[in-house]
Amino acid sequence: MSAPRYLVDSNVLLRFFTGEPPSLFQAAKAFIESAEKGAFTLAVPALVVAETAFTLESFYKPPRGDVAKALVECFKTPGIPLLERNRVLQALGRVQESGVHFVDAYLAAVAKETSMPVATFDRDFGRFKDVEHFEPKA
Question: Could you tell me which residues come within 8 angstroms of residue 63 by beta carbon, excluding any fewer than 6 positions away?
């Protein structure tokens, strides 16, 4: 019989990364350590990664690259697989390289993978030389 799988919400990851509040940190840490030991698997959707990254960046204010690095390290754990793994890891790599928000990096990863240009008013897309983008006009 295979180990159970659970989708994990960003609030569990946030408690784990921030250590706050201590009681929830302990619960999140024990839960994640159990997944690391193979008791069960935690599936992490891209949207949860986005919410986690955004909350860490906006509330706790570490550099985006540091947030991306911590997330990559967490998701290297066998018991915590990412849904859309390649796309999310590519996006986190783009965050580390360019310092853009995760959602923009994720959109760039999708654009690269699908060969679709991105319609955006965001100038950050100029940092991605491998992704076609344009600004909609009236």
Answer: 99
How many domains does the structure of the chain reveal?
1
pLDDT digits (tens, 9 = 90+) for 54-96: 999 999 999 999 999 999 999 998 889 899 999 999 999 999 9
Please tell me the distance from the alpha carbon of residue 84 to that of residue 55, in angstroms, as a whole number. 21
Determine if the pTM surpasses 0.85.
yes
pLDDT in the model for residue 1: 65
Torsional class of 125: left (φ above 0), alpha (ψ -120 to 50), beta (otherwise): alpha
Phi, psi of 129 (to 5 degrees): -70, -15
CATH of the domain at 9: 3.40.50
Over range 36-47, report the average pLDDT: 94
| Structural domain containing residue 48 | 5-134
Rounded to 10 deg, the angle between the 46-55 and 10-18 helix axes is 40
C-alpha closest to that of 105 among 131, 136, 69, 72: 131
